[in-house]
Amino acid sequence: DGGITQSPKYLFRKEGQNVTLSCEQNLNHDAMYWYRQDPGQGLRLIYYSQIVNDFQKGDIAEGYSVSREKKESFPLTVTSAQKNPTAFYLCASSVHMNTEAFFGQGTRLTVV
Amino acid sequence: GIQVEQSPPDLILQEGANSTLRCNFSDSVNNLQWFHQNPWGQLINLFYIPSGTKQNGRLSATTVATERYSLLYISSSQTTDSGVYFCAVEPRIQGAQKLVFGQGTRLTINP
Question: Fewer C-beta neighbours within 10 Å, C or N terminus of chain A?
Fold first, then answer.
């Protein structure tokens, strides 16, 4: 099945710990994105990558880091520097920039 | 940056009713998409519609790029249509290559 897979679906983290969210796609898409959604809000862009080994900061990159070593994978690390990490995180991909984007099922991160 | 405003913020209807959701954007765009967020949080693609009109079953969408708005029509609503509908645009400004989301319209269809 082609698609975008995010794991885990739910994640609990102790304050002060780093955590990595996985995003894998088998659609052969060049571009990948990470968004954050807070309750009752729209999505805000954290990071995006147009091609392997390249990525750019989005609107709210502080406290996050990413890598793009493989075309199909775009993991997001939520670091201890992120002040309010509890949120719903969504990964997306598209053939390339300026084309239709498709989303994974999301990871709900809770800091305890 | 570009502003994306969706209206109404909340809409409550009876099953069988028709609805129109609106998305206004403040600048030229390359791309506009409509999504439905289901109760589990997943974003379902409805339309990729930078301009013109498209239809898919009971849903249709129209984007008038020159006037900077898009409309999503839902006819004969069903309870499964409930959820949050998002409009997202990709600004035409060079280097802006990202989808900017509106705040969404929460649609509730009562049986």
Answer: N
